[in-house]
Amino acid sequence: MSLPVVAIIGRPNVGKSTLFNRLVGKKVALVDDRPGVTRDRREGDANLSGMNFRLVDTAGFEEDDAATLPGRMRAQTQAAVAGADVALFVIDSRAGLVPLDQEIARWLRGTNTPVILIANKAEGRAGDSGVYESFSLGFGEPIPFSAEHGEGLADLFDELMPHLDRIAVEAVVEEDDESPSAPLKMAIVGRPNAGKSTLVNKILGEERMITGPEAGITRDSIAIEWEFEGRAVRLIDTAGLRRKAKVEDKLEKLSAADTAHAIDFAEVVVLLLDATRGLEAQDLRIADQIFEEGRAMVIALNKWDVAEGQSALFNGVRFALDEGFAQVKGVPLLTVSAATGKGLDVLLKVAFETRDAWSKRVPTGELNRWFERALEANPPPAPGGRRIKLRYITQIKSRPPSFVIFGTRVDQLPESYRRYLVNGIRRELGFGAVPVRLTFRAPKNPFAPT
Predict the structure, then answer these.
(1) Does the annotation place 195 within a ligand binding site?
(2) CATH number of the domain to which 98 belongs
(3) 58 annotated as belonging to a binding site for a ligand
(4) Does 10 carry a binding-site annotation?
(5) In this structure, are 354 and 381 located in the same domain?
(6) Is 165 labelled as part of a ligand binding site?
């Protein structure tokens, strides 16, 4: 049963994202004093006193031309309200009504979506005059509210309940994340203007994300539920990642931290490169960040439809990746076009296959048979004439696949031999180019001093 949808709307900087965070129960949306922080629709599951619904945070409603960035943001907001069961119209009670509030109210009255008026920032009676003034908007009695302090939640519940006729009160048992049928959590990351939001829009078949020639349009990491050939996908669009030395703005730092959180949340991360610019040092830094987080990775060369010298470009990027990102050689490298849609089906199929490898568990018997063959083909070295004995291996977890080898004098094992074993695990046990964690443990010496 799908949850009812509630959209939050209002002019910039009235506290919409703070309200969103309050109702979903965690700080998901970026919040800053500057107006216009939210640009795309962000969705989250909210629970208000046992009443469950899908909440949509929208960009601040502005009156700019449709071709401008604020105009495209407004179009996203209008689409969100059209698809909602209820709209929460938020005003700043301390600032009082402004002409843009009146304009939004006129537009909302022309829609078919029920509207609940929230007079935010009303704590301490400082917003009383704004609360009384907002009666004139024509949506009945406003709810005096404080998203910052959580005041007014009971009144909001009373107003919402009659509108939401599909209320799920019982707890929802979530599907096992490691089940093959669980949604694929796929994040799209890369440098600014690589085409991440355009790619998401093309995959979805709708203008879900705001796009344009301006770099850095996306600020929040936006998760979108979708299906590919009957299989659930959770797409995560992220803000562009620039080199740290160039990130000075506070908001951009918040966006970068949000992207890092999205990488940690994802199962498969698609690193999107701009084919017209090739592989740059920042791309390798992002790849290293994905690897360090233990996420499965697919690399996609976007804008392939306008790339010149395609064969030389692809081979050059493949070589540079294998040389500059030696931790995991052979990471899938695909060519796509977010503008035309070419290669996107292959991208999604490879993402599912990569998740399968990342989630794989090897039976202990099969694992140790491989281990014996690996030791026989290339025995551990004997530094100082004393042999290093490796006794057995076990897989302690998946996602990422992690193994422990038990033996003696393992602290003297050279890094080259560890790489030999890791590469063998990837190549011969079907893990491909996913991060593999391998640690060594020695039995505790019962005669060692304590």
Answers:
(1) yes
(2) 3.40.50.300
(3) yes
(4) yes
(5) no
(6) no
Q: What is the average pLDDT score of the chain?
A: 80
Q: Is 60 annotated as a binding residue?
A: yes
In a domain, 176, yes or no: no
Single out the residue in 330, 358, 386 at which a domain terminates: 358
Asked whether residue 398 falls in the same domain as residue 339, the answer is no
Chain CA centroid to CA 48, Å: 24
Together in a domain, 233 and 308 = yes
> Judging by beta carbons within 10 Å of its beta carbon (0-12, 13-18, 19+), is residue 175 exposed, middle or buried?
exposed
55 is in an annotated binding site: no
- CB-CB contact of 413 with 406 (8 Å): no
Residue 389: C-alpha distances to residues 227, 378, 381, 442 (Å): 49, 13, 9, 10
Peptide bond into 401 cis (omega under 30): no
Whether residue 13 is annotated as binding a ligand: the answer is yes
192 is in an annotated binding site: yes
Give the strand pairing for 402-408 and 389-397: antiparallel
pLDDT at position 61 is 64
SS3 231: strand
Q: Is 249 annotated as a binding residue?
A: no
166 in a structural domain? no
Say if residue 12 carries a ligand binding annotation. Answer: yes
Consult the annotation and say whether 331 binds a ligand.
Answer: no
365 annotated ligand binder: no
Asked if residue 427 belongs to a known ligand binding site, the reply is no
Same domain? 222 vs 345 = yes
Question: What does the pLDDT read at residue 419?
Answer: 92
279 among the known binding-site residues?
no
For the ranges 13-22, 211-220, 394-403, 409-418, the lowest mean pLDDT is seen at: 211-220
- Annotated binding-site residue? 144: no
Rounded to two decimals, the pTM is 0.59
Say whether 57 counts as a known binding-site residue.
Answer: yes
So what's the pLDDT on residue 202?
87
What does the pLDDT look like over 276-326, one tens digit per residue? 998 888 888 888 888 988 999 999 999 999 999 999 999 999 998 888 877
Q: Model confidence at 184, in pLDDT bands (50, 70, 90)?
A: very high
Q: What distances in angstroms separate CA 247 from CA 215, 226, 257, 341, 392, one per listed residue? A: 14, 32, 11, 32, 47
220 annotated as a binding-site residue: no
Residue 26 is assigned to a ligand binding site:
no
The confidence score (pLDDT) of residue 51 equals 79
96 marked ligand binding residue: no
Q: Would you say 441 is a known binding-site residue? A: no
- Whether residues 102 and 236 share a domain: the answer is no
Mean pLDDT in residue range 148-171? 71
Tokens standing for residue 171: 């707890």
194 has binding-site annotation: yes
Which structural domain range is residue 116 located in? 5-160
Is the pLDDT score of 43 beyond 60? yes
